[in-house]
Amino acid sequence: MTSYPGIVSDTGHNRSGAQLPALSFEFFPARTPRMDRNLWRTMGQLELFSPAFFSMTYGALGSEREHSISAVESLQQEGPVPVAAHITAAGHTRDSLLALAARFAALGVRRLVALRGDDLAQGGFRDVADMVESLLGVADFDISVAAYPEVHPKAPSLAADLASLRRKLDAGSRRALTQYFFDADVFLRFRDAALRAGITQPLVPGILPLHDFDKVQGFSARCGASVPDFLHERFRGTRAGSTEQREIGIDIIVKLCENLIREGVEQLHFYTLNQPNLSYEIVRRLQYPLRHELERNSVSRAA
Ligand code: FAD
How far is the CA of 99 from the centre of ligand 1 (A)? Predict the structure, then answer.
């Protein structure tokens, strides 16, 4: 097992005394009052695990952009968990992106996830490495970038993808958050290849709670994440969105995370899809203590 430098976790230990990886949770901005209630409900549950940060995705187009920015603003002002604002080169000139970063910094946002963004001509930056370097000129941000265990669909090869990842990290990013995957070996092979390519910063596995198998198959095809045969086997004969699918999905993702924890990952990044309960249920089954349980344990240790 390779050990990676990086993130200090205050997340606690499981029942067998093993240190648990840090947690982060990703949300997307709400567009309706109902979605907004769901979002805050989900965050309210997940903050009980003392996560390293909550991250908020960024839609580069007009109204999407405003939703993202105001979601970051209210999270930063009203939430107790550090916020990581996603920010995309796409849809911005160099000046407009750096102005947005300065606005976040003025609000007290210290974490960014720096991305190229999809479907738009790249804005004023040469590439994400150039963007990271420029963002660090605005403030001493803690920057994460994206990585793709199954190779970005537009990258010509694994080697080219890793070279690009290394450039982004060497420009001053602290870690890479990965696209989701369902087979731990996919991540572990990628981590080994990254190490061989000279990448020593932490690679943080992205975890997608499986909720509705049909939907997951649809968007996995679009983002280049494979759906392994064993998943088809497990879901065969089940009804889309049923309780049975939900239980199977939770079981699969808990086992995936247990594998990754055994392999020494230092952080797990959950794509919550703004769904209350699902990520909570998975994290709880991984034996993460809630904040008040951690506090109780440390008081009883001190006594
Ligand atoms: P890069 O590092 O530039 O690209 C990754 C790899 O793909 C590199 O090897 C690069 O060379 C290759 N590549 C990408 N595009 C091209 C191209 N056009 N031609 C040739 N090679 C190419 N998107 C959003 O809009 N908003 C978000 O909030 C957001 N959050 C994300 C969070 C995570 C954790 C991840 C994994 C992705 C997220 N994305 C988001 C999606 C991301 O913007 C896309 O995957 C985008 O295509 C690549 O972004 P990148 O920052 O990895 O870019």
Answer: 21
